[in-house]
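Duplicate of #3305? Posting structure anyway:
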């Protein structure tokens, strides 16, 4: 019998109620070089919406994985970008490690065909896929943490999550009034008030002048910009100074969790699981 359009969409998106073979989960475990069973991977890929929640889902693993991910990503970002405010760190983490970003990681892993879930909108079965896939990646991290411990989970996050992201700090910075922000920042740091100075100019009395402006804090130039007007040049120079400050990267840094790796006497004992029976 020819599959309906809805069934074809379900099969493409990994949502069909047709049983997914154990080999699918075994292959996924092998591909990611994990040390737990295909049965555990099946649970990782099972959303609470599947079969109306009658089967054991990835809910608890996702809850744990979200916090494990936040810990390892958070400490990495805080150490790498020491000048970012808490709000900027949160925006950076959401932009590059939120559910949409994690869904892309899940597609790269090949998790999408293994997902078991059901959309709340029957007429549009693809709605919600990104959220479900992103949460499944969180569940995967939670399962690794529960099965193999914090150090293995940390290595996985650094290799597959942090190691695959190219961060653009400037993209999450909302700078509406750079001059005012820069004055506030220098005052907060106890530095001299920033001063704009013309570094170079051409065509002042023509229809297309160019002004190169430097922003100085004392004798040190902290930003530079250009524009067709003095105001535009100062705006861009102030913004450049802010970006250089907040986006400053520390190349070599230590993470708080590194101390755990040096304790050779620590042995990880995975918890014993007992599958709950499905309600009658």
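Output from current build:
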């Amino acid at each position: 019998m020819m599959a309906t359009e809805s069934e074809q969409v379900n099969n493409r998106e990994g949502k069909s109620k047709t049983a997914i073979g154990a080999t699918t989960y075994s292959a996924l475990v092998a591909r990611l070089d994990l040390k737990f069973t295909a049965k555990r991977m099946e649970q990782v890929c099972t959303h609470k919406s599947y079969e109306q929640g009658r089967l054991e889902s990835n809910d608890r693993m996702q809850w744990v994985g979200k916090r494990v991910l936040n810990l390892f990503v958070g400490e990495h970002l805080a150490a790498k970008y020491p000048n970012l405010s808490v709000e900027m760190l949160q925006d950076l983490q959401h932009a590059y490690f939120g559910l949409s970003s994690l869904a892309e990681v899940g597609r790269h892993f090949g998790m999408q065909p293994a997902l078991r879930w059901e959309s709340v909108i029957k007429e549009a079965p693809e709605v919600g896929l990104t959220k479900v896939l992103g949460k499944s990646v969180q569940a995967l991290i939670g399962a690794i943490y529960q099965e193999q411990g914090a150090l293995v989970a940390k290595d996985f996050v650094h290799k597959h999550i942090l190691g695959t992201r190219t961060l653009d700090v400037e993209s999450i910075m909302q700078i509406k009034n750079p001059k005012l922000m820069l004055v506030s920042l220098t005052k907060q740091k106890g530095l001299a008030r920033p001063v704009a100075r013309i570094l170079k100019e051409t065509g002042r009395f023509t229809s297309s002048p160019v002004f190169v402006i430097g922003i100085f804090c004392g004798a040190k130039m902290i930003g530079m910009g250009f524009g067709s007007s003095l105001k535009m040049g100062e705006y861009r120079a102030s913004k450049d100074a802010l970006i250089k400050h907040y986006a400053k990267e520390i190349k070599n840094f230590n993470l708080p969790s590194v101390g755990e790796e040096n304790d050779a006497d620590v042995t990880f004992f995975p918890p014993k699981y007992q599958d709950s029976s499905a309600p009658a």
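Confirmed duplicate; merging threads. Residues 59-80 form the longest helix (22 residues). The chain has a mean pLDDT of 85.
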